[in-house]
Structures are given as structure tokens and as C-alpha cells.
Amino acid sequence: MSSAIALLRLVSRRHLIFLMLLIGLVFGTAAAANAAPDTVAHFDPASGQWHIRSETGSVQSFYYGIPGDTPLVGDWDCDGTDTVGMYRRSNGFVYLRNSNDFGVADLEFFFGEDGDLPLVGDWNGDDCDTLGVYRNGEIFIANTLGTVVGEFSFFFGVPGDTPFTADFDGDGLTSVGVYRDTTGFMYFRNTLDTGAADFESFYGVPSDRIVAGDWDDDGDQTVGVFRPSENTFYLTNDNARPIADVLVPFGQPSWLPAAGQFGTAQTGVLITDPPANNIPVLATFDPILQDFAAEVTFRARVSVPPGQPYRLVWTSDVSGVLGAGEEIDAKLIAGQRDVRQHIVTATLTTDGQTFTDQVEVI
User: How many CA atoms lie within 13 A of 215 on its CB side?
Assistant: First the structure.
């Protein structure tokens, strides 16, 4: 860089996603009904840690389960909010929790057989989620939570398929689909009985991991995939159109994706400054650092229960720790030869939980 002045542009991932959504609305993508769509989450099977992403892009992290557990998400207590659960294939037990935080199970029971793949859904339209299992192409459904025998079963798919559940037609009843990840094809039925697929379509690429949710809050649920090779969710609002409407960079290759209506978090952090609207920030040569640098003010809004202690720390993937508190002034190195990109993270720690938000500085 020959000039003594460089420009840094501030770009926020969450605002980029918002811009993509806005463009979609202008060109006819279905609008959200009440701005309360399902959101995505991950379970890290190596550590037993959950990561739940909010609409704003902040991430709530907490431990629930142990390495090797299979993650579950459902409305176990019928209050309208999805919470986490685990299926422990080593002993056949289910452990369900009625809040999204660290703690012991609110309900635990034995369910299924060794090798079963658990399913979650509101099978009878009573606004309560219960379990089912997928066993070599046969699906067993239970309408109560507990150690019960499946009330009925039917066949769909072939051994090796990955089952998933959703309310595909918006009638208030969950049904079952299968994803054939070797081909990228999905098949689903709108009723819980044996028969040919009511719908089939190609979506994703081999090795993608299937999820489903009401991404635009229009009443029916559509598919998405998490692509481990890119650490990105590709979510579509139309099962008949194999094109992603929203891309969500989030996760690690080994993490297991999930989705749900997790409700409005009482606790979280949201970066408010920089405003992420491409306002240029001046970078000048710093004789002490012998490099170009810019002074940037960062601010965040923190939400925690009244009186609950917390700590907010800012870090850069280039410069390390920048400071602590809801407002800091940080010096970011721009680089002598090229402008360096900083990913600045605000990390909120409170009551044993971690929440994050990020902004990109280019």
C-alpha cells in the first residue's frame, strides 16, 4: 500500500443476510407472516455442547448431553417453545429438557430399540411434540411421552435413508420424509401411512445434512441442508424449488444440525456499532506499530435477567483480545501491503452460558 491512508469497510454478516431477505421480498419471495420463523441450531457430538442461533445472529451455547448422544428438538411441555433433548443410543434412554440451558433432564424414559433413529413431531395436532422411531424403513409413532409401545407403524423409504419430520402442507400435523444423501433426493408424505411419496425433489448435494423448519413463518415447513464442506445452511421456502432462499454461515463440519421455534431469548448480545452500513473508517500509519491501523468504537446491547452478573469480551481473529465491556475503543491493524479482514466477536458469558455476535471489518 503506497498511500499513508487506507480505508476499512465494515460489513456485518447478519445485515448481509437481511439484505438478501429484502431482495427476495422485492422479487416476490413469500413474506414472513409475523417475523417469528424457525431458526437453526447445532449439537457438537464431540463435546455435548449445543449452539442455538437467534434471528439476529447471536448464538446461545450451553452443555446438555454427552458425546455420542443424538440431538432432539421439540415442544415437550406444550408451551409453544421448542427445547432440547437427547437420545442415548448406548442405553436406549431419552432425556428431555423444558428449557434451553444447562441442567438435568425434566423427563427421562426408555424408548425404542438399539439402532433406531428417533423422530419428533406433533402427530395428532394437539400442539405437543412426542416421539417416533425409524427402523429400517418402518416408522413407529407414539402420541405420549414415556416408555410406551408405538401406537401404530407404517413403511416409508428404504434402509439407509435419513428420516426427517415436518408439517409439509401446513395442516398442523407432522408427517415424515426421508433424505437419500447419496443422491440428494428427498421424499415425503403428508399422511402417516404406507404409500408412495406425495412429493419428491432434488435438493442439496451428497453428504449434506437435512433439516426442516418454517423459515419464513408462512405456516408450512420446508427443507434446508447443512453443508459441512462450507459450514453453511442452505434454506429454501419452497419444497418444489431446489434453490436456497437464505444462506446462514454457521457451524463446524462435525456438528449435527437441528432447527426449531426456540422462542425469544431472555439473554443475549447484539452488536449495535459499528452500524454495518459500509461507512468508511479512516486508517492511518501508526509509527509505534509500524503498520496502518484504525481506531474503531464497538458497542453492544446486552440482555440478561435483572441482577445477574455477566462479562462481555471483544476479540478479533487477527488481533486477539480487544477489550471488555459494552463499549470499547479498539485499534485494528489494516496491514501495510493489503487491507486485512478482521472478524470481531462479542462474547457474553453469564450463568454458565455463552452468547456471541460478530461483525466483519474489512
Answer: 24
